[in-house]
Each structure stands twice: as C-alpha cells, then as structure tokens.
Amino acid sequence: MIRRTTGLAAITASLGAVVLLAAGCGGGGGSSPATQGAGSRGPITYVQGKDNSGVARPMIDRWNAAHPNEKVTFKEQAEAADAQHDDLVQHFQAKDANYDVVDVDVVWTAEFAAKGWLQPLKGDYALDTSKMIPATVKAATYNGTLYAAPKTSDGGMLYYRKDLVPTPPKTWDEMMGMCSIAKQHQMDCYAGQFFKYEGLTVNASEAINTAGGQIVKDDGKTPAVDSPESAKGLSLLADAYKNGNIPQQAITYKEEESRHSFQDGKLLFLRNWPYVFNLASTDASSQVKDKFAVAPLPGLTGPGASSLGGHNSAMSSYSGHKATAYDFLKFLVNDENERWYATQGSLAPSLTALYDDQTLVSKLAYLPVLKISIQNAVPRPVTPFYPAVTKAIEDNAYAAIKGDKTVQQALKDMQAAIQAAGS
C-alpha cells in the first residue's frame, strides 16, 4: 500500500477515488441506504483479495452446501492491497448491490464507514464481540459504532537466534545491549521494515506508541504526534540506525527483505509478522531452522506496543440481500472458521480463547507470544483520512531515521501534514 500524493487537493481527490488503506463511521458522506435490502434473502457475493492460503473457497463451499437458496459467489481480487482497495472504492462509488460482503484491511474500515459505504453492525445487525480480542474490536469500530466483524488479526513479534541469545530481551535497551553478540558473529543486529511504505508506518507507530506517544487523538482527526513521548519513541529507531545497530541496508527493507536477511543467518533480531515463523522453519534455503524462537516485541520496561494488523469483514450498505449477508458475516467469524484460518492459513484468529487452545498451540507454537502481541497492540490511526496520515508518517519517519531531519523536526512536519489532511 504505497501512496504518493501530496497537497490537500491531491489528498481530497485520493479520498474520493483511489486511496489506499483506512478505517470507519457511518453516514458521514453521501447517501447511506442502511435499510436497502433489509430482511431480504438470496444469492450474495463475497469479495476478498487473492486467496493465497486457500482458506476462502472451501469455507464458501461449506456455506453453499448448507444454504442452496442463498449461495455465495466468491469474487477474488488482485494480490496487491492497493488494487484491492481501489476495486472496493470503485464499486462502492457505483453503489454496486452485488458487492454484498467485503474483506477490508483494518485500516480501511474507518474511511469506508465515514463515507457511508459500510452497514453499521447494530440493531438488527448487532454482532456479539464479547469473545473477541478487544484490540481487534477497536480496529473495527469508528465513532463508537461497530462497522465490521474482526475476522483475522495480526501482531508483530521479535524473531531471535536462540542459539546465540538463550534468553530473549524484554526491553529495547536490553536488546541494543545484545548487539555486541551480533558483532562477534559478523552479523547485523536488528531490523524491521524501514523502507518508505506502509511497513514503515507500522514500525514507526510501534516505536511511538511503545514510548507512550499518540499519532492522532481518539476523534481520528486531531494530530497529537508532536510530543516528548513520540520523540522518545522515534529516537529509538533513529539512534539505532545512526550507531549501526540497525544496519544501513535496512532502510530498504520491506517484510520480505528483512525475512530473507534473518533466514540467511545475517540478522540476530527481526521484527516481523507471524507468517515468517513457518517459512523460516520449513524453507529449504533457511539457515536458521531450529535455531530461532519468538518473543514479544521489547518495549521500554516490558512488552512493546505492536501495530495491529489483520482483516475485517463488512456488509455493504448497498447489498440487496442484507439478511443473507448478515448471516454469512457471522458465519465468517464463527469458532469453526476461526480455527480454520489458524490451521489452514496460519492467520491469527480474532477469538481470544483460541490462543490458549492446546490443540492449536501444538500446531502453531507461536500463538502464546502472538496473543501477548495482539493484547498489547495499538491500531494504526483510526481516521477517515488514513492515506494522507500514513504518508505523513512514512515520509517523516524515513527522514528522521536516515538523519535527513532531526526527530523533533520530523514530528513537527508530521503533525502539520496530518493537520492539513483533516482540515
């Protein structure tokens, strides 16, 4: 999800047409036909990005076998997140009644809801979220209203070489102190994702939130990032890059570049998502099989604040068969399917109890650590102006880490850009 528009006019245009990721409120802009298709049943369409894990089709087949008069057609989108987002925007703007239930990245929910494109999940469409991880529910909520069903989650974890570091660091300072071990073995010490793209928003947000900072206030519009706490957090990354604990080449790292560095045995500590666990364990080329483990991201005094990842499922306001769409939405997040996401797709479930299920833990050893990560997670800014906000974070965090701006100046510029986006 790479956005490259500048200026208020471009921001406004991107929000109206081809933006990238964001998240939601209802009835904020344009018509929101909340009663369209109410009570109506019939065939519906489920829209989701490329099904790389092969979990969607078998699940839909199960639904269709049980609901022959309310069959679901699967519309598979492209693999790239920005293409998925733009496809949804196009069909929402056209008030397409055939996009009934849609899969949305957690950071799209507010944008889509603010435009009136998502059906509020209240009243006849209320959803029981009491068994779900609170952070996932928060990411599906905008202006106090739930607009999507938390389907799968995600949280950052610290991968480390257990053969070289028997006990993982619990704090950032402790981890930085262990960089001497990396030097002894001619390795790089620590890397995350620091290229100028959405991954940098994730990493910078984690550093800022871990230090007690905040990017935007709870209203989703007022910037709050220019603070001593934010400066302390962003300085963790800038200082580590300056002194070499984060290697120079890490400024080019996205998820895959950083994974390969760790798997090739060149990196002592890696911040990345759970998908790395299986690949580092099974890839024929992995140099770290049986040599690594995972731990919570280190914070200042204990676990740090991961950025929350994952996907939600939502009902389109324009669906012509909302009764069926609502039942299918509940089906997507039931216990059976949440287990299916975990075991078949290595996707983090949204149901709290599954992280302590010993059958699942025996298959997915990282689940207890991931539970800590998600419980301490902070959603990226929940704002209808997300594309402009994330660009402000990317641009200025990148400049601060590279040393092109001081941390203080970067945060002032970040604050100003977010202010302009919401005005």
Short description:
The protein is α/β, with parallel strands linked by helices and 423 residues long. It has 17 helices and 13 strands.
Task: Give keywords.
alpha/beta; 423 residues; 17 helices; 13 strands; D-Maltodextrin-Binding Protein, domain 2; 2 domains; 4-stranded mixed beta sheet; 6-stranded mixed beta sheet
What does this structure look like?
The chain has 423 residues and is an alpha/beta fold. It has two domains: 23-154 and 310-375, 3-Layer(aba) Sandwich (D-Maltodextrin-Binding Protein, domain 2); 157-307 and 385-422, Periplasmic binding protein-like II (D-Maltodextrin-Binding Protein, domain 2). It is 41% helix and 13% strand. It is built from 17 helices and 13 strands. The strands form three sheets. It has a six-stranded mixed sheet. A four-stranded mixed sheet has the order 9-10-8-11. α8 packs across α16 (386-402) and α9 (228-243) packs across α16. Mean pLDDT is 90; it is low at 1-32.
CATH topology of the largest domain: D-Maltodextrin-Binding Protein, domain 2
> What's the alpha carbon Rg, rounded to whole Å?
21 Å
Helical proportion?
40-55%
Strand residue content: 5-15%
The total strand number stands at: 13
Give me the secondary-structure category.
alpha/beta
Widest beta sheet: strand line-up:
3-2-4-12-7-13
Question: How many helices does DSSP assign?
Answer: 17
Please summarize the sheet with the most strands. 6 strands, mixed
Low-confidence stretches: 1-32
Give the N-to-C terminal Cα separation. 24 Å
CATH second-level architecture of the largest domain: 3-Layer(aba) Sandwich
CATH 4th-level superfamily of the largest domain: Periplasmic binding protein-like II
Using the alpha-carbon principal axes, give the shape: globular
Average pLDDT for all residues: 90
Q: CATH first level of the largest domain: which class?
A: Alpha Beta
Order of helices and strands: HEEHEHEHHEEEEHHEHHHEHEEHHEHHHH
